[in-house]
Amino acid sequence: MSGAGDTSGAGREGSDPRDVREPWSRPDLASLTPDRMMAYIRARCPWAMDHTHRTLAPYLLEESAELLAAIVEDEHVGSDGGSADAAGTGTADAVEAELADVLYQVVFHAALLDERRGAEPGATWSSLQQRLVDKYVRRHPHVFDSSSPVPIADVQRRYQDVKTAERAEEGAAREPSAAAHAEAADEALSILADIRGTIGAKNRQN
């Protein structure tokens, strides 16, 4: 990766924003996808530059918890028959906003993987989208690989078969570092407990 003073990539369309810090110029927002925007943020924002997967973890957990809270509130409004009124629209908008916050974290973590791998900005984001498509197809053969409707019992059975195969594959891949994964899981639970306490305190204040 080029240093902060390297301007060889400046002005080239599609150049790596991580290599374009000087001369400083405004990027064309209309042409930037979320992954490209995050590459600029990582290159130009001092706060974002300092973050790692580990330091971002509390934000991901907090945003996920806030998303769940917004979903619960939206479902409560809908159950009261208010989903079509202003309150219902407001809670639906809140869910959408929290989804965007979670997605922000996903794009951020993807950018970190790009840098770790020495990949072009957006490479991991593209890979994530392909993984998502693959998972859709793998878990829904009754939708994408069936010539007729499939009974719900068969759908559930096939889904469990797919999940079992996925767990076996993931377990084999992670077996050499099982202790490290266990330690990471414990740390994540500790962070989540802290976030729950913070959210609980906020709710009591309200």
TrEMBL record:
Name of the protein: MazG nucleotide pyrophosphohydrolase domain-containing protein
Residue span of region Disordered: 1-29
Comp. bias intervals (Basic and acidic residues): 13-25
Superkingdom of origin: Bacteria
Domain NTP pyrophosphohydrolase MazG-like: 52-144
Organism: Brevibacterium jeotgali
Enzyme class per UniProt: hydrolase
InterPro entries the UniProt entry points to: MazG-like_dom, NTP-PPase_MazG-like_N, NTP_PyrPHydrolase_MazG
Keywords: Hydrolase
Keyword Cell inner membrane appears in the UniProt entry: no
E.C. no: 3.6.1.66, 3.6.1.8
A Pfam family recorded for this sequence: MazG
GO terms classed as biological process: dATP catabolic process; dGTP catabolic process; dTTP catabolic process; dUTP catabolic process; TTP catabolic process; UTP catabolic process
Compositionally skewed regions (Gly residues) per UniProt: 1-12
Single GO MF annotation: ATP diphosphatase activity
